[in-house]
Design goal:
seven-stranded mixed sheet, three-stranded antiparallel sheet, Dehydroquinate synthase-like, alpha domain, alpha/beta, Rossmann fold, about 325 residues, 2 domains
Length: about 325
């Protein structure tokens, strides 16, 4: 199946196909120098398979985890391209999860003012969400995604076969983003998640999530309006994630619950539990709140949050810091 992200001159195809990894040479323009960025926990055969289909591959493996979305690792990638004499006609290929995609995409966006970027996501989280839309970034001083750009990939290859090597916790981690999108934007998909076992229907879930995000990004490429719906669960979730104790999707799951009306929360809880995601947790309250206050969505004493009062109808709402703190405190007490 092929979806096309319609963004004028920046349009690109999203190919969802089993076995696509082995067809990268046909589906992507790899007859040039290709910086292939992958992660330490990504099965090495994935990057190797792509490298065999490139004319001049340069494979770089970065450490796993958010720590790689840093200036030192970003600088290392840029220096490697400089050493290998990369030009504007060459490209960067991400083979891995969201961290690899964000990091490699930002390197592609900034090296020589921008070179071609291909994304080959290999985790549920990156396949349903982060691989499309063009948001690329690194972290600074524990503030997530604070330095970045909008840089659309030239093409995205999604091969569900790569999910076979994922541990169950990583599958759950990615399902959080699919649940997030269904809750805010697609009541039919949310009902499907309620009524069906999740991993056996992964392709249906990936496709449904991609269609939601594609529609939203086409309306609002640079996140000034409807695209902010995709931040559901992220304001508090990013604060929890800064503690380093939980995975991104687990933090998003916890961050969604305080932003729901009671009847929505009652439906969301069993879906999160079925997906293997946490619905309660303990955290350092002061440290998490401090991280929340550094969220780039804050403007003075107000912040835009995403709330869901009706499943499938998320809403961006500006609230005071005090009102957000009340939601945060309520969530902490319930945890």
């Amino acid at each position: 199946m092929t979806l096309t992200m319609e963004l004028g001159a920046r349009s690109y195809d999203i190919i969802l196909q089993r076995g696509a990894l082995s067809e990268a040479g046909r589906l992507l323009e790899l007859n040039r120098k290709c910086l292939i960025v992958t992660g330490a926990l990504v099965p090495p055969q994935y990057a190797a398979r792509v490298a065999r289909q490139c004319a001049r591959p340069v494979v770089v493996t970065v450490p796993s985890g958010e720590g790689s979305k840093s200036f030192p690792v970003y600088e290392m990638l840029c220096r490697r391209m400089l050493e290998e004499n990369f030009h504007r006609t060459d490209c960067v290929v991400a083979v891995g999860g969201g961290v690899v995609g964000d990091l490699a995409g930002f390197a592609a966006a900034s090296f020589m003012r921008g070179i071609d970027f291909y994304n080959i996501p290999t985790t549920v989280l990156s396949q349903v969400d982060s691989s499309i839309g063009g948001k690329v970034a690194i972290n600074l001083d524990h503030v997530k995604n604070i330095v970045g750009a909008f840089w659309q990939p030239k093409r995205v290859l999604i091969d569900p076969d790569t999910l076979r090597t994922l541990p169950p916790r990583q599958v759950s981690n990615g399902l959080a983003e699919a649940i997030k999108m269904a809750c805010t934007s697609d009541a039919e998909l949310f009902a499907f998640l309620e009524e069906n076992p999740l991993p056996p229907h992964m392709e249906r879930i990936i496709e449904g999530s991609l269609r939601i995000k594609k529609r939203i990004v086409e309306q609002d490429e640079t996140e000034r309006g409807p695209r902010r719906l995709l931040n559901f669960g992220h304001t508090i979730g990013h604060g929890i994630e800064s503690t380093g104790a939980l995975l991104h999707g687990e933090c998003v799951a916890l961050g969604m619950l305080p932003m729901c009306a009671p009847d929505v929360r009652a439906r969301l809880l069993p879906v999160l539990e079925k997906a293997g995601l946490p619905t309660t947790a303990e955290w350092d309250r002061a440290a998490v709140w401090q991280a929340i206050r550094h969220d780039k969505k804050f403007a003075g004493d107000a912040v835009d949050i995403v709330v869901v009062d009706v499943v499938g109808q998320g809403e961006v709402r500006r609230v005071t810091t005090e009102a957000l703190k009340a939601r945060f405190d309520a969530a902490y007490r319930e945890a």
